[in-house]
Amino acid sequence: MIPAQFEYTAPTTVDEAVSALAQGGEEAKVLAGGQSLMPLLRLRLAYPELLVDLNRVAELRGVRDEGDSLVIGAMTTHHTVVRDPLVNQHCALIALATATVADPAVRHRGTFGGSLAHADPAGDLPAVTVALDAEMIATGPNGQRTIPAGEFFADYLTSTLQPGEILVGVRVPKLAGWGFHYEKFNRVAQAWAVVGVAAAVRRANGNIAEARVGLTNMGATPVRARAVESAVQGTQAAPAALHEAASQAAEGTHPPSDLHGQADYRRHLAQVLTGRALAAAARV
Amino acid sequence: MPRISVKVDGVTYDDDVEPRLLLVHYLRDWLGKVGTPIGCDTTNCGACTVLMDGSSVKSCSVLAVQADGSEVTTIEGLAADGQMHPMQKSFHEEHALQCGYCTPGMILAATDLLRDNPNPSDDEIRDGLEGNLCRCTGYQNIVRAVRRAAAEMTESAAATDPKEARV
Ligand SMILES: Cc1cc2nc3c(=O)[nH]c(=O)nc-3n(C[C@H](O)[C@H](O)[C@H](O)COP(=O)(O)OP(=O)(O)OC[C@H]3O[C@@H](n4cnc5c(N)ncnc54)[C@H](O)[C@@H]3O)c2cc1C
Ligand code: FES
Ligand code: FES
Asked: What is the mean pLDDT of residues A47-65?
């Protein structure tokens, strides 16, 4: 279908984008890669009166080294993230998960920031940012603020960005010496995760010193599998011990039932996939 | 209405367009490039795939205004000097199509894949084409065609570049 009419502006700086968004008021919307928004416009599920296109804002693209952390610009495409040397060296979990997102053409346009702002619980990157304790950097009419990833996802397709705010980047702490894995279960190529597990593991002397586990599509927002994280701490880095700890993966989660799977099936998947993700991240 | 200037298949066009005009509709309805079909409303099928500044994109999820200043290649611009592109030729020779609806997108996505990875394995070909759905062929011949085009393109690159021939 053809989208309903809207006005369009393509600012070249963040300041211009923030004022354009403020002028547009409630009926204005940010356009990033368009890989979620364009289908919504075509299906006429969204009717913005103004689109503020961020594609010409150069300062929002690329990855910056800030010493202990990296800042990934919101408009950095999935394609770039997968290949970025800094991301692969310091936060490889993000590159691994992004490589499973959609397909090459979608990854050429879809952006890191757009995937997070969209806040789809089936999206692969929200759980990764939650697992890595990333921080979202937002700029709005009242200036800049940072939001911990754990507080950024409010509900199904809803973030805690305020109206008029733009997600400009994501600060991700560097994790030296950790192992990573993203385990995604989907039915066919290019499909969204039925359940996904993002795991980061630090080993010391054959044991698991520390682990972080984020779950995709196990509720309306991405969640940390805290019970697994504590169970796994100090255990042997061996498949049996990791799978044992993973049996707590569904604790405290509220997974959806939909045509891709029932809630109890998702709980089962979360346990199996968490075991696999931990083992792969621990290289055992 | 915003004015755009886009180079499509080697020719520059200047037009005033509504912001809501999709690139795929611009190509088909304004420029008559009906070689680029539309297969869905959800950015899933890949039928509308074109190259924008060399990278594959689904032209149903790009606005025509966003293509301002860029270079677009559709299936109609792939042949050079009356000669089919090696990828087109391989699709023909390997019988990699039945109804042909997915073929333009499939061929453009496949050329994009080879730009990144000139010698892909069968699995890499399937991964590279995961955004392009074919309802007819079962994909076997498509994979075969891409493999054949990759071999031919590497060979002809080697023939024209003596340095390449040694590696
Ligand atoms: C066929 C297909 C398969 C897909 N499969 C997957 C998958 O397996 N896993 C996955 O994770 N994703 C998948 N996606 C979604 C893809 O990752 C999109 O790129 C992503 O959801 C949205 O990013 P975008 O840059 O395209 O944002 P857009 O579509 O442009 O925007 C999405 C929403 O976020 C808002 N927004 C965007 N950027 C900002 C910003 N900087 N500040 C404030 N608000 C902003 C927009 O206003 C809009 O509401 C798929 C998409 C398609 C079409
Ligand atoms: S028409 Fe289906 S992806 Fe564009
Ligand atoms: S040949 Fe018919 S859809 Fe592919």
From this structure: 98
Neighbour order of strands in the sheet with A195-204: A179-185, A195-204, A207-216, A223-224
B160 near A CB under 8 A: no
Total structural domains in chain B? 2
Nearest CA in chain A to B65: A8
Q: Which amino acid is at A83?
A: R
B147 in contact with A, Cβ within 8 Å:
no
Q: What separation in Å is there between the alpha carbon of A251 and the centre of ligand 3?
A: 45
ipTM of the complex: 0.95
Residues in Cβ contact with A258 at an 8 Å cutoff, skipping those fewer than 6 apart: none
Closest by Cα among A149, A147, A128, A127 to A137:
A147
By C-alpha distance, which of A46, A52, A49 is closest to A18?
A: A52
Task: Please state whether beta strands A195-204 and A143-148 pair in parallel, antiparallel, or not at all (unpaired).
Answer: unpaired
pLDDT for A208 equals: 97
Residue type for position A225: A
Q: Rounded to an integer, what distance in angstroms lies between the CA atom of residue A30 and that of residue A50?
A: 8
Total domain count for chain A? 3
Give the CATH number, domain containing residue B117. 1.10.150.120
Residues A47 and A29: their CA atoms lie apart, in Å, by: 9
Count Cβ atoms below 10 Å from residue B25 Cβ, excluding itself. 20
Cβ–ligand 1 contact at A147 (below 6 Å): no
Residues in chain B: 167
In this prediction the pTM is 0.96
Domain membership flag for residue B137: yes
B132 is in which domain, residue-wise?
86-161
The 10s digit of each residue's pLDDT in A125-147 is 999 999 999 999 999 999 999 99
User: Three-class SS of residue B102?
Assistant: coil
